[in-house]
Amino acid sequence: MGAKDRSSAVRSRRRVSGPPKPSRGLAALDELVEAGGQPTDSQEELARIASSLHTLERSGGLSAVELLDQLAQSIGSVAPTDPGTLLTIEQESALREAGSFVEQMPTFTARASTVTALQGISLIASSLTTGEIARMLGLTDGRIRQRATDRTLLALRVGSSLRFPAFQFLDDAELPGWERVAPSLPPHAHPVAVESFMNRPQVDLDVAGQATSPIAWLAGGGDPASVIDLVTTAFTVHP
User: Fold this and answer.
1) What separation, in Å, do the N-terminal and C-terminal C-alpha atoms of the chain show?
2) What is the mean pLDDT of the chain?
3) Measured CA angle at 64 (ends 60, 65), to 5 deg
4) Collapsing DSSP states into helix, strand and coil, what is residue 103?
5) How far apart are CA 165 and CA 232, in angstroms?
6) Do both 144 and 158 map to the same domain?
7) Distance between CA atoms of 228 and 186, rounded to whole angstroms?
8) Which one of 67, 86, 129, 216 has the minimum C-beta count within 10 Å?
9) In what order do the strands lie in the sheet with 161-164?
10) Whether residue 119 is found in the same domain as residue 140
11) DSSP summary character for residue 222
12) Number of domain units in the chain
């Protein structure tokens, strides 16, 4: 099952209990929109913002504030679009001689930082709560939190809560061998990079002559040690 399939499964489980109520902040925004009176360009734009935030909240079970906080933290401050404003004449000249000078920064939506941030939001939106994982695995909430501390489950801190990326689970169970693989991931590894690694076919994980992803390898009963070896190689920072 791929990342999109698992995300769909998570959303399906959540729809059983009905659509979530909007967060307090979004409900207040709805009131502002409804109290706006005669429609204006500003009111219409505000209504579009509210509609988009409702879509985000329904898709992931996180409040609009939490999702926007994650986006802001991931992207950080946006650099000026003109790289020349950040460089001295000597630095620009050296970059031009090396063929590395960029006349214009990519648009905001095309920047790697923005793409990664959006992927991170998608990962968080499809993740599961402590309670959901506890019920799935038949454990207590406390035990799930302890496993997050021990790093035998990969968890993200979102506000005051923990969220568990869905790629660690398969068919309402923990991915076989994950309790051994997860601690081998360095604490600094970006969750988006980990998800990408786990879903990407690896030539060293050969099944019937086909490169297999770490998720498929573990799901098929492959030795977790083989994945751990790849983790060590993929996430080692060389000087």
Assistant:
1) 36
2) 76
3) 130
4) coil
5) 21
6) yes
7) 11
8) 86
9) 128-129, 161-164, 156-158
10) no
11) -
12) 2
